[in-house]
Amino acid sequence: MNHEDTDIRPFRIDVPQADLDDLHRRLADTRWPEELPGVGWSYGTPTSYLQGLADYWQNTYDWREHEAKLNAFPQFTTTIDGQNVHFLHVRSPEPNAMPLLLTHGWPGSIVEFMNIIGPLTDPRAHGGDPADAFHIVAPSMPGFGFSGPTHETGWDMSRIARAWAELMGRLGYERYGAQGGDTGSVISPMIGRIAPERVIGVHVNGGLGFPSGDPAEFAAMTETEQARLAALEEQMEDGAGYAIIQSTRPQTVGVGLSDSPSAQLAWIVERFKEWTDPAAELPEDAVDIDQLLTNVSVYWLTGTATSAARLYREGRASWGQETERSDVPSGVAVFPGDSGIRTVAEREHNVVHWSEFDRGGHFPAMEVPELLVGDVRGFFRGLR
Questions:
Q1: Active-site annotation holds for 24
Q2: What is the average pLDDT score of the chain?
Q3: Is 107 in contact with 268 (CB distance < 8 Å)?
Q4: 2 pLDDT higher than 50
Q5: By CB atoms within 10 Å of each CB, which of 68, 223, 271, 336 scores lowest?
Q6: Global pTM value
Q7: Burial 254-265 (b: 16+ CB within 10 A, else e)
Q8: Are 311 and 141 in contact (CB under 8 A)?
Q9: DSSP structural state of residue 333
Q10: Is 176 an active-site residue?
């Protein structure tokens, strides 16, 4: 790390009223695309659905209420490797709590964690065992939300992992756990590889790694895992357009996402439709609609759709690459729709804990917070 300002500065979210007025005006002025009858979501987010959601965002949703809820968590900024980094830092009232670093992904944010921070930091107040308490550090990834935008190339996942290791050291945490989903399920194990003497354990929701294509690996999969692999391949075929665009031309798509809140809404809501619990018909059947709109609002109000999308461009070279095996104890929670395959995970990770759930999806901190909290507690209980 170069010599730089290592100060940690308190931070409060305070969006100017003019920005909220501008958001409402733009939503009201949206030029909507026509849509084909009878195709549902198969061509992308339907205009008829999106109009109702945009109307709710414009006329009913209250940013100030959710801004206040976010500001109930202590927040800070610091500069790491030349980049502004925003993070929540919530200390547990329990003196022996374990430090735990939470990493979100795209199209998520620290908003995802609003319902799990309380139970994780203060289990006693939430009907849990105080021995399971954590001190929570939840950063906004470089380029995302209040850590954005980035100002140079090179902010890939390994650089973020190094920045997170620096952040935890700067906060005085010698030993800590790491947890993440989506991009966070890639970054968290990387921190374990960078600082194995500091990382107590790594817990992810989703999966760890991609199948190698080795026929023996496929033969070792259970029927359920083979079905997950088939679903993953289908998703790569039909549902990966967003990733291909963001990993090749993020600046181009960023024009629409930065200029139109309805475009930003469509872009993120489509992912929630496809990645939440498959049993849920619509995103709001899986997650609280106000929490979802708070997440979208953070992207919009910070103007970071483009810099967040650039993460895919920066990380493209490392997709699916083999990495050296990690000996850090790892735990995996697999929720419906995610592609967790144990034999694949065990190839590069020391998997000591594996849980499968029949409800929830790709955003369990929002969908089934109590299940995720229980699994995180259970995994780290054996490592304290």
A1: no
A2: 95
A3: yes
A4: no
A5: 223
A6: 0.96
A7: beebbebbbbbb
A8: yes
A9: E
A10: no
